[in-house]
Fold each of these.
Amino acid sequence: MSARLSDYDYHLPRELIAQRPLERREDARMLVLHREGQTIQHRRFAELKQLLRPGDLLVLNDTRVLPARRISDNGAIEFLFVERLGAKRWKCLVQPGRKMRVGATTTINNVLVRVEEVTPEGERVVEFASELDPYAGGSMPLPPYIHRPGDDADAVRYQTVFARVAGAVAAPTAGLHFTPEILNEIPHTFVTLHVGPGTFLPVRAENVTEHRMHAEQFCISAEAADKINKAGRIVAVGTTTVRTLESAVRADGKLVAQTGWTDLFIYPPYHFRVVDVLLTNFHLPRSTLLMLVSAFAGREFVLRAYQEAVRERYRFYSYGDCMLIF
């Protein structure tokens, strides 16, 4: 294992970062990794069902992304609203931060917004002069590596077809490839984890064990827990599903219905107790998500697979292609 941040780095040509989704969700390419034989295959997401076996259960995150991005009336400040703290108080991320220090003001919909506090993580606690729902009229919070404003198409495509429980500020992107038709052909169940602002924050500690994750709320229903406990192999769709399941498992390996918060940080040499197969998109260098995948499949094997994906011109990140790891 390695606890050095620099050991989770790789080179990615900027042109491989997908700026828009494919016309059809199911047309994504899928890099298939077999941990036991350390082999790599090139397949298509539409072939997913063919690669699974009887008894496999897909577990997906049904969180729904909020239209949490707002721009100040003067166009100078971008807000990402992440948590309501009171009738007029919100926690948010802002860009550029240097313009929004404690006491700074601007307006949204002609309502004054004032910075009350800057948290140690760099978030802003702001207060409106009068009540305002920042999500009303907001846009999809596209990741910063998508260098364009969100549009009407993103309101549909930066949302899974099974999104149900509103509360996330980023999409569980491995689920973006599914269509209702593909999902209906494969046994599945849902859990919920509301992806929080921590997904946008970089790891700054060179020793990754010193990094602390933001807590995110999750929920597992009694029906989902029962299906998971009875399944053969658990196929986790996305890193958020992995963190939900691994946070909720008991000492005896079983899940029980529950709602709670998790700040679980998974990195090598983590021992997985629930997840057997992982479907995931490609992740940023030096990110906690890349570390989770490295814990699941081995850092050297994962980085070799990423090099293969770069050579083969796969599309990366939220609107990009995916990996299936057995």
Amino acid sequence: MLPKEVLRKIRRIEITTSKLVTDFLSGQYESVFKGRGIEFDEVREYQPGDEIRSIDWNVTARMGSPFVKKYVEERQLTVMILLDASSSSGFGTTKRFKKELAAEVSAVLAFAATQNNDRVGLIIFTDRIEKFVPPRKGLAHVLRVVREALYFTPKGKGTDIASALKYLDSVTSRRAVTFVISDFFAKDFKKPLSIANKKHDVVALTITDPREANMPDAGIIELIDAETDTPYMIDTSSAKVRERYARKAAEMKDARTTLFGSVGVDHIDISTDRPYLEEFIKFFRMRKRRT
């Protein structure tokens, strides 16, 4: 049984994110992520202008007048959320940690999917696969996805995006809209990302914090790498140190953007210090222009 404060937080997330989806994102989500192919819906009487090739000759013979087959787009999708729970996601210098923002974004995507009757699955990963929730439909299932995203306690510390993408391929037999939510502090995932994007529609959501781009003047401080526990002493009062830090952060961001572009993966940059709704809307508009 979950503690009452946990249930209250899940309920707050449910109310906040489902309202956000209903008010702003639901229609855009549906118009951007579409099903593949068509499926048979029903037969109806022939009307002037219908294609001759759509006539159902068996039904026509039985009824004595022409009937045509009607098809609809196969709308239902499988949505997979790959959530990075490595130790670096526990960093945050504003109102919330990166992992809290990542969990909320996961909830938004899950509610958008369920409002369109899509199946939602979740893979939580660090330097290993931590949790797999198979894709299903329904509000109760989405609430489980939200609960796991918010409160799952991982065992690993590092980040292995390549293994998470390979695991995705092993547990999905059909094409899925796949959101990879991470800070992407990882190596050697370009090839697995490219392979995954050929089978699935992969979107990368990068979660960052402003202090990862700019270091404040705070004198001599000790920093600890959250994923390796390696300590570092840094003199942040040095302008050269701060400039080098900012330059390195910008280079990493540019390299990440270049990598996504080179394998055809769309990406959204989300930061802990600003609302993410605008970034989602810009992304949906960009995708819609391409369709």
Amino acid sequence: MVINTNTSATRGARFLADSTSNLQKSLARLSSGSKIVEPQDDAAGLAVSSRFDAQINRTEATRANIGNAISFKQTQDGYLAKVAKALDRMSELATMAQDETKTEADCALYEKEFATLGSYIHLIDTQSFNDVALFTGVSLKVVQQEDHTDKFESSGIDLALNSAAITVLAITNAGVAESALTEIKSQISAVAEYRASIGADLSRLMKTDEHLSVLSENLQASVSRIKDVDVATESARYAKYNILVQSGTAMLAQSNSLPQSALRLLS
């Protein structure tokens, strides 16, 4: 029986310190919701999850770019739909102007609406999306992968050429109205082709957005498996260490009282 060195108390203090440290780690995991609270918890997992997080952010940024491209194309199609309606009306006016029962005064009335619709198409030709011209014929290049190495290029639409061909037309008499109608029919076909091309581009962009959404979802699931704490398992671990801390504290108190029994030998 010795009083200078209390081996039991030293050992008990070490066990208590270990249990307390584990209890604190478990509490930190439960409060943060993450298994990796500090780098030393899982150094490799931290490195992998950090790369995944960066890839997720790039993927979401790519989806934002694609969303803007979709809006750009939808805006183009919206304007072209109005152009198509204007051309339909112009073809109707050109047909009516070929009626030989109509006087030149009647044709002049048709010509006013015809010319107004032509100027309307010219106005649409100058429209822009976020200060980017819609109908200059310049192709639109869209990043479709988060690594920025692959780009989808949609064909540009040069509505200025169509507008120039339309604005010089007239239906002042049956003869010129017939020629105008031939050109208008050609322009109607051209606008239909433009809209079909936009539809194909929109389909491609939306499919790309969908697969990027799936990629982002899978990456987030991967990060979750690495970083997110299993609450059920960690709760059981927390309860275990909590009991160990309480029992360790009690046993340390008992160990510290053992040397007092030596005083009985001196009494």
